[in-house]
Amino acid sequence: MSAHNDHRWMTISNVLSVLRVLITPVIVYTLLMHYWHVSFWLFVIASVTDLLDGYFARVLHEQTILGHYLDPLADKILLLSCFCTFAYVQLSTVPLPVWFIVLALLREAIIVAGGVVLVFQRKGHSTAPTLLGKVTTASYMILILWMFLCYFAGWVPCKSFYGGVIVCAVCAALSLVQYCMRGVKSLGFWL
Q1: What percent of the chain has pLDDT over 70?
Q2: Other CB atoms within 10 Å distance of the CB of residue 35
Q3: From CA 179, how far away is CA 191, in angstroms rounded?
Q4: Rg of the chain in Å (alpha carbons)
C-alpha cells in the first residue's frame, strides 16, 4: 500500500513523530533552565525517534499520508527549536552565529511554504524529502550533539565547531536550491 493511499493515522511511526514534537518543548525548557544533561538525553531520545519512525514505516509498511508530512515537520520543530534556544542561551563554548540561525529558519520557511503550495496544487508527491535534505537534517542533529559535548567537556573547539557550522550551512543551502528546483519543475515553471 502506498503512502498516498494509506489514510491510517495511529501507527508506530506516527506515534514516534508525535513523541518527537511533544519532547521538543521539554528540551527547550530544560535548556533554558540549564539542565544540560536532561536536555542532552531528551535530544538523544528525540533523535532516535527520528531514526526509528522511518525504519518502522518501511519495515511494517506503515507509510501513511500523515507520516509523509508529520515526520519532516517534527524534525523541523525539534531542530529549529534547539538552534533558536542555543542561540538565546549563548553558550560560551560554542556560540551559534546569527547568520546560521537566519539561514536555517529561512530554509525551513521556504521549504514549508513551497510544500504547502505543492499540496494545494495536488502535487504533494513532490514534497518527499531528498537525500540532500536528509543529509542536512542529520548534519543539524550532529551539530547539536557536538554543541552538547563541547559544553560538557568545556571545550572551545573554534575550528572544528565553525567547520561543522559551515558544513551544515552548505548542506542547508544546497538542499534548499534542490527543493526549489524540484518545486518549480513540479509546478510546470521549468524553463
Answers
A1: 91
A2: 14
A3: 16
A4: 17
Q: How far is CA 108 from CA 64, 98, 124, 170, 175, in A?
A: 22, 16, 17, 14, 11
DSSP 149-177: HHHHHT---HHHHHHHHHHHHHHHHHHHH
**Domains of the chain with bracketed CATH:** 12-186 (1.20.120)
How far is CA 78 from its chain centroid?
6
Instruction: Answer for the pair 11, 3: CB distance below 8 angstroms, yes or no.
Output: no
Cβ 98 vs Cβ 143: under 8 Å:
no
* Residues 158-177 pLDDT 10s: 788 889 999 999 999 999 99
How many C-beta atoms lie closer than 10 Å to residue 41's C-beta? 13
Q: What angle do CA 175, 176, 177 make, to 5 degrees?
A: 90
**Burial status of residue 131 (CB atoms within 10 A of its CB: 0-12, 13-18, 19 or more):** exposed
- For the entire predicted model, the pTM comes to 0.86
Residue pair 19/77 in contact by the 8 Å Cβ criterion:
no
Give the count of alpha carbons within 13 A of 45, CB side only: 16
Name the one residue in this structure whose C-alpha cell is 513523541: 19
pLDDT per position as a tens digit, 135-161: 999 999 999 999 999 888 888 787 888
